[in-house]
Amino acid sequence: MTTFSLEDLARIVAERAAAPASESYTAKLLVDGPAKAAKKLGEEAVEAAIAAVQGDRQSLTAESADVLYHLLVLLQGANIPLIDVMAELERRTAQSGLAEKAARKT
Ligand SMILES: N=c1c2ncn([C@@H]3O[C@H](COP(=O)(O)OP(=O)(O)OP(=O)(O)O)[C@@H](O)[C@H]3O)c2ncn1[C@@H]1O[C@H](COP(=O)(O)O)[C@@H](O)[C@H]1O
């Protein structure tokens, strides 16, 4: 059991964004520009999907961590606070995904 949260990681990412790129992978990704972080996020998402299809729980756990970390770096670079994403997710709790999909098709 851990009390470590995505908010905790987002805080670390925000702090490391200001570090020299030679000392921080986070800072290096951000200095390289949004396309670099976006590419890494895409790669990690594909690796997570492959691990899921293969039923590899250990890899899926590790790749999911990579996906979440790289998503937070991408959000940091785009100046989108994690709380905005959480607010969007909270807004969606008012409706089931299937109902939302059906509403879009009419
Ligand atoms: N959670 C992570 C995290 N997850 C993954 N990674 C890095 O993401 C990279 C994953 O890419 P790959 O597996 O493709 O490895 P790679 O081939 O070296 O990557 P590239 O050369 O293609 O960029 C690795 O270098 C990992 O070390 C992370 N780097 C940092 N963090 C967190 O960010 C904090 C600050 O890190 P720095 O910014 O490096 O100080 C750390 O203490 C962690 O809490």
Protein architecture, described:
Pathway: Amino-acid biosynthesis; L-histidine biosynthesis; L-histidine from 5-phospho-alpha-D-ribose 1-diphosphate: step 2/9. Belongs to the PRA-PH family. This is Phosphoribosyl-ATP pyrophosphatase. One of its GO terms (biological process) is L-histidine biosynthetic process. The chain is mostly helical and 106 residues long. It has a single domain, classed as Helix Hairpins (Orthogonal Bundle). It contains 6 helices and no strands. The chain has helices at residues 6-16, 25-32, 34-54, 57-77, 82-92, 97-105. α2 (25-32) packs across α3 (34-54). The termini are far apart. The mean pLDDT is 96. The structure holds phosphoribosyl ATP.
